[in-house]
Amino acid sequence: MLHSLGAHTLQLLTQAAACILLFPRFLLTAVMLWLLDFLCIRKKMLTMPTAEEAAGAGEGPPPDDPPVCVSDSNRMFTLESLKAVWHGQKLDFFKSAHVGSPAPNPEVIQLDGQKRLRILDFARGKRPLILNFGSCT
């Protein structure tokens, strides 16, 4: 019981530390999304000709230019996008493989299901170990 409580406490402390470390990065990303939304909407509104100018020029908007419609469906600074950014940054923080660090060596089970080995146990001498996660369908 005490060991389980210690493990849960350690996990909680790890999650709290990750939140403290990730929060500034998350805020920076949120501000960038807000600025991008603001600039895109501002550009659309400022460059959109008035009805009189469009009629006088004789030309309409290009056929591939969508109509200006500012709604939550075409904005990047939404609650869903912020949730996705937070989740992605947490996944990136807790991944076991990082650039410049040694490769992870997880445990694998052979096809017969009896013997457990580590991936790097299959490496032979100086030859590189190649893992193929492909499909044969």
From TrEMBL:
GO terms for biological process: hormone biosynthetic process; thyroid hormone metabolic process. The chain crosses the membrane at residues 12-36. InterPro entries: Iodothyronine_deiodinase. Keywords: Membrane, Oxidoreductase, Selenocysteine, Thyroid hormones biosynthesis, Transmembrane, Transmembrane helix. GO terms for molecular function: thyroxine 5'-deiodinase activity. Belongs to the iodothyronine deiodinase family. PANTHER family: IODOTHYRONINE DEIODINASE, THYROXINE 5-DEIODINASE. Responsible for the deiodination of T4 (3,5,3',5'-tetraiodothyronine). This is Iodothyronine deiodinase. It comes from Phasianus colchicus.
